[in-house]
Amino acid sequence: MSESLNGKGLALVPRAEGKQTLKDFKSDQEVRWCPGCGDYAILAAVQSFMPELGIKRENTVFVSGIGCSSRFPYYMNTYGFHSIHGRAPAIATGLAASRPDLSVWVITGDGDALSIGGNHLIHALRRNINLNILLFNNRIYGLTKGQYSPTSEIGKITKSTPMGSLDKPFNPISLAVGAEAGFVARTIDSDRKHLHSVLREAAAHQGTSLVEIYQNCNIFNDNAFEQLKDPEKRDVITLRLEHGQPIANATQAVKVAPTGGLEVVARDSIAESEILVHNVHNPDPSLAFALSRLDEPAFQHVPIGIFRSVDRPSYDSLMSEQLEMAVAQRGQGDLDELLQGGDTWKIS
Amino acid sequence: MTKQVQQLDRVIIRFAGDSGDGMQLTGDRFTAETASFGNDLSTLPNFPAEIRAPAGTLPGVSSFQLHFADHDILTPGDAPNVLVAMNPAALKANISDLPRGADIIANADEFTKRNLQKVGYDANPLEDESLAEWRLHSVPLTSLTVKALEEFDISKKDAERAKNMFALGLLSWLYGRPVEATIKFIETKFAKKPAIAKSNVAAFNAGYNYGETTEAFSVSYEIKPAPLKAGLYRNISGNQALAYGLIAASVQAKLPLFLGSYPITPASDILHELSKHKRFGIRTFQAEDEIAGVGAALGAAFGGALGVTTTSGPGVALKAETVGLAVVTELPLIVVDVQRAGPSTGMPTKTEQTDLLMALYGRNGESPVPVIAPATPSDCFDAAIEAARIAVKYRTPVMLLSDGYLANGSEPWKLPTAAELPDISVPYTVEPNGEDGVTFLPFKRDTETLARPWAIPGTPGLEHRIGGIEKADGTGNISYDPNNHDLMVRLRQAKIDGIDVPDLEVDDPDGDARVLVLGWGSTYGPIAAATRRVRRGGAKVAQAHLRHLNPFPKNIGEVLKAYDKVLLPEINLGQLALLLRAKFLVDIISYNRVRGLPFKAEELAGVIQEVIDSE
Q: Hey, are the CB atoms on B295 and A319 less than 8 Å from each other?
């Protein structure tokens, strides 16, 4: 676990006794995604990652909404709750708030989290309940067979938008930073090593972590992230975010623009000292927001990694504190005392 | 001057004023005094949804009615004997409910030309002869209050605002109420503003002394304490009783209570009350919306909590999908619907019984849910425990249908002790239930209750996945098998149909009545009071009241068929009647009024008598 992050996310979750393996986390259910779907890679990455956390499997819960990705819990041999469209953050909130001894993971997609469940998502983020939200973003509706999603690019031709979609997409990272989420990161289905590193930090973070995972839907929106996977282009486009490191790759670098925002310039056009050094702990979300805007226009330069990791008390821990304080101040509740409180009178 | 004291067996007082005049507080205090005196009582607050409607207008009138007696009573009373009218609007809005000969105590200071015009009085009714049929006491409450508070260092506005305490003092004298508790209450309420506390106490005392000394009131009244059953009592509203019932249910079920709720009239007070009792390990979560409220409660239930959500009709509409998820995942959940006038926003502060069919059927698919309705404010306590008992034992969402009348109305409550309450605890499942001793089958049912195991996260070896997609009987694996779906639909229905519900009791003193009057929920008081009246008049009528709306008591069909006629008053257009007609082929006679108000006993007595008299 990284020392740079608070590491309290799993503090109350009991540790596993023996060593766990990937097999322990595979359920006996047949996986039913389309062959070639990016979800397989994410599932395999999560299954292989979970043993590393070293927490009791029975204290791990996956909660999902509706959509292709939301089938995920069935394939994890943990506790799981496949709920209803958009509501997974709400259901997970009740679970995590009442059971601080659980590691709760929300699996959601761009439609589930940002359309029908947008309200629950932003409120989970602002409340900072101890949840890890994995948002599989494939920029399309898969389960309903190919309508545009709230992350589809403008002009998207789909069954419901034969002349092109009209609405501007959400950028999930901008949205999460705008809601002042404590932990916001982006990774990609095809890079298991990076996925692991981000999940590790997300789990360690106490409070709500949002991880956007670029995920390919090979049926309805194939190659949506191809530029990030193409060995010839990816290193030019991708900007790896690492705490304490300059935000740059071999050809591009990020600097503060005269306007106050950020801009990407040719690396050899500026001095090293001018390159913005990434600070995930910056309490001011402005720079993280500016970083999230760098992929506009789409995929000229895409930051990948942890945008923001800021400590603040989680809702569930504050809630528990209030309960403890109430008991400390006035003692445990007593039913007879409660009922007989207030103005009473006796009839004999 | 020694004043005459007249004995009365009961009185109905209505305090009415502008919504900023503090009428609810005045009514509450008079109620507390009356309760501690030992009368039986019943209350009916009636207020606008607007927090402060324009001052002095008819929509801004807020009132509080209190019925108290030297015997046991069932309703807040049909028509007031006394109207306290703090302004012309209060008089105009309430005069039509006032029988001839009743007392009117009007605040003369507020009957100004401008205030009279606001409500369309051409002349001052306190000065012309238009109120001759009533006993009018025109009292300058505001100026008397201001005069009494001259020596206090407070603004004129603050002095004027104490007029409700002056009125309370006057009424307290008039009906011989004990005053110590009110004085203590004022001192506590304004503890941080000593000048306001002192001036309000002074206004209260001034009102009391005014009654004692002025010639305007020559008679005071005595209403002896009621011979209620021996025990310790307190006055309680339906919402408070419901909150206490949920706390008691949590204790008796040995489960931590988790409330997910979104504020809505008239249910918010349950959220407020439960939020105060964190010492019981209660977690209250004010969610971002109604859907999140029930979602969080269901999530907590998956984690082993007693999950509760509280709302009113519009909120139930929003929660429907999640309640369906609770049905199919078979988790315990309590959904409290404090019904209000609908459809849509309707009349938020007014009462109705119009959510019965929504509670039963307002979801997609075959989605059976038990439904329970309390009969009186204090009964909300027992109904909450019963809802929890069923939810936990059968692992099902339960709808609890209170309403605005029960929620805000109050009555004396004989306090139970914790030791008298039922143990409703059910252990979590902690062992595998498969034949091989290793496998866990999340949908293998208890053979008696048909409930599935409740295995909560943190239990080793029982890891399993639930969800909204149809599950195979036993294993809980996703299943699209047609026969399995048919089986699961029937099993879920059979589980609810098989819930142990007590038989319907019939009150038929001589056993030979030919007419049964049936009710459910908050109509109990008016129906029982009407039944008494009819019986006093010499006619025979049986009465029964349904608490369990789903499943019905096993004997309900027999009861319905044992009478020539069944009369069913409902504050809707006949929702229960529709169900009973369909299920039991009985020609129910419906009586329906949907005015946002409870029935009046006199009105129902007339209807019952008519049914008895008709061929």
A: no
Are residues B71 and B201 part of one domain? yes
Residue of chain B whose alpha carbon sits nearest to that of A70:
B467
Rg, Å, chain A Cα set: 22
| A94:B260 CB<8 A | yes
In angstroms, the CA A234 to CA A237 distance is 5
Output the CA torsion sign for A27, B495, B450, A91: positive
CB contact under 8 A, B461 and A58: yes
In a domain, B142, yes or no: yes
Q: Is B390 exposed, middle or buried (0-12, 13-18, 19+ CB in 10 A)?
A: buried
Strand ranges for A123-251 from DSSP E: 131-137, 183-188, 209-214, 238-241
pLDDT at B236: 95
The pLDDT tens digits for A167-199 are 999 999 999 999 999 999 999 999 999 999 999
- Give the type of residue at B237: S
- Number of alpha carbons in the 13 Å side-chain half-sphere of residue B611: 28
Integer Cα distance of B75 and B600 in angstroms = 8
Contact B345, B314 (CB under 8 A): yes
Count of domains observed in chain A: 1
d(Cα B485, Cα A160) in Å, to the nearest integer? 32
User: Could you tell me the CATH number of the domain that includes residue B542?
Assistant: 3.40.50.920
SS3 sequence, B213-245? HCCCCCEEEECCCCCCCCEEEEEEEHHHHHHHH
pLDDT per residue as tens digits for the range A101-119: 999 999 999 999 999 999 9
Q: Is residue B554 part of a domain?
A: yes
pTM of the complete model: 0.94
Please answer whether residues B341 and B314 qualify as being in contact, where contact means their C-beta atoms are separated by less than 8 angstroms. no
pLDDT digit string, tens, across residues B350-383: 999 999 999 999 999 999 999 999 999 999 999 9
CB contact under 8 A, A93 and B289: no
Cα–Cα distance, B158 to B202 (Å, whole number): 13
What mean pLDDT is reported for chain B? 96
- Total count of residues recorded for chain B: 615
The whole-angstrom separation of Cα A96 and Cα B207 is 55
Say how many CB pairs under 8 Å bridge A and B. Answer: 208
Residue A4 has pLDDT above 50, yes or no: no
Residues of A in contact with B418 (CB under 8 A): 335-336, 339
What is the domain extent for residue B102?
Answer: 4-222
The answer to whether the CB of B11 falls within 8 A of the CB of B41 is no
Contact A77 B463 (CB under 8 A): yes
B472, B355: one domain: no
**What is the rounded (10 degree) CA torsion for B322, B328, B330, B331?**
-20
Torsion angle (degrees, nearest 10) of CA B256, B260, B264, B266: -20
Rounded to a whole number of angstroms, the distance from the CA of A333 to the nearest CA of chain B is 5
In total, how many domains does chain B have? 4
DSSP class of residue B165 equals H
CATH number at residue A48: 3.40.50.970
pLDDT for A1 equals 37
CB A117 within 8 A of CB A64: no
Distance in angstroms (rounded) separating the CA atoms of residues B43 and B25: 13
Whether residue B204 sits in one domain with residue B95: yes
**Cβ(B102)–Cβ(B64) under 8 Å?**
no
Strand A252-256, strand B306-311: pairing? unpaired
Residue-number span of the structural domain to which A223 is assigned: 22-243+278-329
Interchain CB contact of B432 with A (< 8 Å):
no
Identify the H or E element spanning A262. Answer: strand A262-266
CB-based contact, A333 to chain B, within 8 Å: yes
> How many angstroms separate the CA atoms of B447 and B428, rounded?
16
**Does B587 share its domain with B448?**
no
Residue A190 lies in a domain: yes
**CA B302/CA A82 separation, integer angstroms:** 12
